[in-house]
Queue: 4 jobs
Job 1
Amino acid sequence: MPFALILAAAAVGAFAFRDLLTFDALAQHREALLAFRDAHYLWASLGFVAAYTAIVALSLPGATIATLAGGFLFGIFPGTLYNVLGAALGAIMVFAAARVGLGADVSAKIAARGGAVARLQEGLRVNQWSVLLMMRLVPVVPFFVANLIPAFAGIRLVPFAVTTMVGIIPGALVFTSVGAGLAEVFARGEAPDLSIIFTAPVLGPLLGLAALSALPMVIKALRRKEA
């Protein structure tokens, strides 16, 4: 039931908020948002984190726009902190809902059936910290899917939560920094260049961190061969 509600909310939200969670909407309402932040900074901060959490938890469109808004409204810091908190809390809610709704049954059926999928599931459990961290550092897997795979594989909450919060920091920092420079982009009447994350100065360190997170798996494999 919790997972079904999330899917239903995602379907409704994709239609209802398709014109609100956009870059054009942010540009149109930027003065009002800045005025509210200046007048009610604490409520603006709490409201932003709550809104970001809801966007991720309900799989609404606009998470990237929300990240840019965090940088635009609050700067690189605490904007990055707010973005990470919102994304992590939303991801944990999706993970928990999937675990309660379907995760336990799916995990048990995979284990009982055996075969390649069961071996993959067991490998994920054995190397859960490294695999989960790599999934977040190099976001090849869509964020929503990356919240579901661990739930269906029987991963515990603590490794999921920690690796999510740590793994999304580099990407959040990049997009928050882009958002922090939106005032100049708005003044020129342009849209931000989000392809920056695929440039060598950004992608290189991310891949390096991913390789570093994979090191424990490599060491385990070498030890098994020696044994």
Note: Residues 76 and 177 are 5 Å apart (CA to CA).
Job 2
Amino acid sequence: MSNSSQSLALAPANLAVAISNPGALGTIEAYISAVNRLPMLSAEQEADLGRRLRDQDDLDAARQLVMSHLRLVVSVSRQYLGYGLAHADLIQEGNIGLMKAVRRFDPSRGVRLVSFAVHWIRAEIHEYVVRNWRLVKVATTKAQRKLFFNLRRMRPDGQTLAPGQVDDIARELKVRPEDVSEMEVRLSGGDCALESPQGDEDAFTPISWLSAEGQEPTQVLARRDRDALQGVGLEQAIESLDPRSQRIVRARWLRDEGGATLHELAEEYGISAERVRQIEAAAFKKLRAALAEQHEALAA
């Protein structure tokens, strides 16, 4: 076994764990320092390990190929630090891409693993960035992802693009100007906190109106029906009564300046106060029945 292979075979066991969790060594700096101390493989060593993995499914060969290229993932991941995502997370996703590349590596094609793996590493990091940069995805198709990463790089200081700049970028990237403008709008948007920061009770945030019970659809419909019954619906129900019943209901309950008493209406119609009360009770019963029919009609 060569010196490089011996060094890889003797690498700390916890570094192997750190491939899937760069924070396992304590700090990201400790992880980077550890992977940078691992030796690189020569072309002959790499080809031999690749053949062992391909022909014998040798997992130790796969481990050595992965370990010797961890520094490549660290290098590629640094290019994506401007997206506000944790470096350890970027490295972790890149390591997944590296392992996928090692599994597909074929030394008989005469291509070094580093040239092959870099595309897989970037693909995994790209997917992670697009998936986690915003709550709402800004790019879903392959073309949109390509435009997303290129446009972030080409926008001067993140400023709004002038029409001429949009056309120049569209020509360079071989896309439509409308696609550039749409992606610029997506990049310019930001996430909005649903709730106010802790301790800031005066701040007005979306949760303030999202939780308003009065705007819940069933509440809105109930208010609409109630308003309809109390307005036009009530008037129609009253008009279905006989004239004397209408007069008693209106005089008792619908006058602005105080309702008439039972004795006043009894004197007006030449009947007893008890008889006025009975007519009023019968009128209310008919009104409730008429309003119930209207409510059923509205619900239907």
Note: The chain has two domains: 3-133, 214-299.
Job 3
Amino acid sequence: MSARPALAALAGVALVLGGALSGASATAATDDAPPAVVSLGDSFISGEAGRWQGNGYGDSGGSAYGTDRAAHDCDGGEGKCAHDPKRVYGSSYDNGCNRSDSAEITHVTSVRVNGTTYPIAPADRLNIACSGATTAAVHKSSFKGEEVQLVQLDRFLKGDGVGKRKVRLIVLSVGGNDIDFSGIVKTCVGKFLTYRYCGTEQFRAEVRQRIASLESALTATINAVHGTMEAAGYGRSEYRLVVQSYPVILPGTGYNRYPETYNDRYLKTGGCPIYDKDADWANQGIIPGLLSAITSAAGGTAQVMDLSDAFAGHELCAKGVRAARQGETPANPIPEAEGEWVRWIGVPLVGQGQVQEYMHPNAYGQRRLGSCLAAFANTERTAFTCGRP
């Protein structure tokens, strides 16, 4: 990326925030403008892995036993299909932002703000989030060829190309990429494939330090969101800013339906290539650590939605749920209640979808997160825990 686009993006943010600091005049949309909601941040809210409704393991081609929502024009046995990921991700598939049609924000039909409930039309649920984004991508750096997310938000607030909207809810999911969570997972998978644990005390201490360093970046991001809104003429009582945590995506010890035995068949039938001990560390250390950093950064300026247990019983490889099986189709897929809500880890298979989709909420998981957000949006609460389904 050249310096010129980055400088231009930074200048845009400076103008937005500078207006708020200098008291420059700005006019927010009037209260009779259509109300809108916006999502910012990373893959856990952009809709990454929304292509999949459950997991069809092994050598299931075609529609992958009905799990591939990008499959179309299939033959009678669903063994051969055409595939078009843009049916799910739209044009965002081109740069890998992967904003899916089932993303969390698409499930918010109304929001309650300062005693009033506002209906939200489908066209007014804006998804600016991008898979892989860090806090920097939200408020100060261009990413994947796109402008800073808050610059994009500012354009929306001004009604560029769509007309004025009154933004009533902003939802932010960010921080996982700042601590390189995907790299942590990659390390654990690599260790599993060589019969070793990844959660050594040295590595755990390094991850704890990453999480400890995250709070200041989150605080700066939250302040920048408010600065953008204030520069557009909004008062704090006119909208809600929600920062969400991350869900547990792997079952802990005793809840994994697969044995801890690595072989090709294990992976091809859906086994998770991570030891229970390492999954326990992620579930009991990393996820709570991120929630703590998010809660501290939010302070009294943003609301917090705790998603830790949102997938309980439907994690990847969990007991009590299953993979899709032969005979299930896109029109008659594995029932949501019976399926995993997290995209598989397809090691060493590469025939289905993208690696970047691994371990993200699939279409069923996004529906669950959407229901959590919709429930929170219609309360007067400032904190919300989305418990076991």
Note: The first helix runs from residue 3 to 22.
Job 4
Amino acid sequence: MSAPAIGTAVAGLRGVRTAAGEAVDVLLDAAGVVTEVRPASAAPVREGELALPGWVLLPSAVEPHAHLDKAFSWAASQAPYGDLPSAIDSWCGYARRLTAEDVDRRARHALTRYLAAGVTAVRSHVDLPRDADDPLCGVRALLGLREQLRDVLDLQVCLLASSLADTAALERALDLGVDVLGGCPHLADDPVKELTRLLDLAERRGIDVDLHTDEQLNPGMLTIRELARQVSARGLTQRVTASHCVSLGSLDPSALADVLAEVRAAGLAVVTLPITNLYLQGRESAAPVPRGLPAVRELLAAGVTVAAGGDNVRDPFNPVGRADPFETTSLLVTAAHLNAGQALHAVTDAGRTVLGLPPAGPFQGGLADLVAVQADDLTDVLAGATGSRVVLRRGRVVAATTVERHTAADLSPPTIGRSE
């Protein structure tokens, strides 16, 4: 298949397969909404339709927790392979010389990777580096990209508030147009005080909340419980998300059940970030080394919305990563023990719920935010198939990748090293 031109409006996708393996044609209207899904037809392909026989068609993915201001800074930061405190130290050292131009360049590069992989919505946290000449440089850079790429993808900017930053500094960042308020209360000297400060600000501003929460293995660190209690007591109506929540994976079943009941009652969503937390957590532990993940299956069983993301890409917090949602799904299956449907939901529909986006996918009435992958089946996709992909946002092509692979093993035996 030759790659369709970027920006092409697509009227239909012919011969694709659903996640369940059914061969279908998917028709779209001019507004980028799916109007019909019907059994695949042998009728001629019309103008504006893409013939992708056998390709797997899925909702486009969501990255609910990125750090675009940090992306691709691993080499320049000269970070060691290490745990969360060493990653923070390395980043703080690099952030002293941060500029808006630097953030724009690396973040734009990361977004092209996300888009090519099938991600059409990203929420990125962004720091206010206290020692930088312009602490707001990262915020300004990401807000600029949000506007420049508005027709290409949905980008939400989440302020990652430090407990060392005064509230006036946070207010200045929010005044620039930040979408979501975040922070790391569990790293503060007084986690409850910091959590209360951030929720006071969010309540006053009427802004969504997405907090780094309990990103460590100590089962005694449960600011998620205080978060759930305050959200319920305040009657907050905006979306509130707890990201990481690693300590939940260290709780015994009885204590975990009590916490999850409060999380569910408060309406919190949880974002798990397997690649970064598998990298950072458990380095100091003697065997057996813990997984460094929240209790993902138990959260799902309790009825909590659980989305998943890649978190960091090649920065001090994670030196690897492909900015690929199907790298995340592979880890959800292997490390979190989810099944294929649960893993797919975590990087698609659940992510849209966390970001407050309308439903998308190959169903009647869904937004045509779609990714078609040349793969054998859904399992092949979720394992991280690296073949060809076509990505649509609102029915228009925003990314197309074609891959050709040739190996000696593909050739018939008489042509390899055999003389006539």
Note: The mean pLDDT is 94.
